[in-house]
Amino acid sequence: MNRAFLVAVLAALVVISAWWQLAEMRARDEHARAQALRARIQQLLEHPAAADSAQQRREHVVLEDLAHHPELIPLKAVSGGTMRFVPAECRVLEPSWVYGYYEDGHIAGVGLFEFHRQPGGGFTWTRIAAAEL
Fold first, then answer.
1. How many CB atoms lie within 10 A of CB 127?
2. Segment 39-45 mean pLDDT
3. Whole-angstrom Cα distance, residue 59 to residue 53?
4. Residue that wins the pLDDT comparison between 95 and 128
5. Which helix (H) or strand (E) holds 66?
6. What's the rounded Cα separation, in Å, for the pair 128 and 44?
7. Is the pTM of this model over 0.90?
8. Which residue in 17, 32, 69, 91 is deepest, having the highest Cβ count within 10 Å?
9. Which residues contact 77 (CB under 8 A, 6 or more apart)?
């Protein structure tokens, strides 16, 4: 009986030791992640323009792609004009929509457009709503 008890105690100690080591490893990993996040937060606090710049680049890419899709505009141009999106007047709305302003120099309109990024790098677009101004 003494021997069985000793084996049971030793097995329990091995299990506890393994559990303890696993817990320490997880704690070290979480500590490293927390330090990396603190460093990133500090970087953004010191250089907020970097985050703004990345967001502006993303929005620029989306709006430039929209400008290449005049087929989304439901209005027909008048007086020889050409309907086009005006990226400076458009806004990217999260998560994947754009408020788009378009005109031909004579008439104008606005619309809500949904976009999805394609694996190859382009976008697919869907007109959700549109109105003439």
1. 15
2. 69
3. 10
4. 128
5. helix 48-67
6. 35
7. no
8. 69
9. 83, 104, 106, 107
Measure the CA–CA gap between 95 and 85, rounded to whole angstroms: 20
Under the banding of pLDDT at 50, 70 and 90, the label for residue 28 is confident
The torsion defined by the Cα of 91, 97, 102 and 107, in degrees rounded to 10, comes to -110
How many CB atoms within 10 Å of residue 108?
Answer: 15
Shortest CA distance to 86 belongs to which of 107, 57, 64? 64
Q: CB under 8 Å, gap of 24 or more: what pairs does 128-132 form?
A: 128/97, 130/73, 130/74, 130/75, 132/75, 132/107, 132/108
Mapping DSSP to helix (H, G, I), strand (E, B) and coil, where does residue 28 land? helix
CA distance 73 to 51: 32
pLDDT at 119: 87
pLDDT at 44 over 70: no
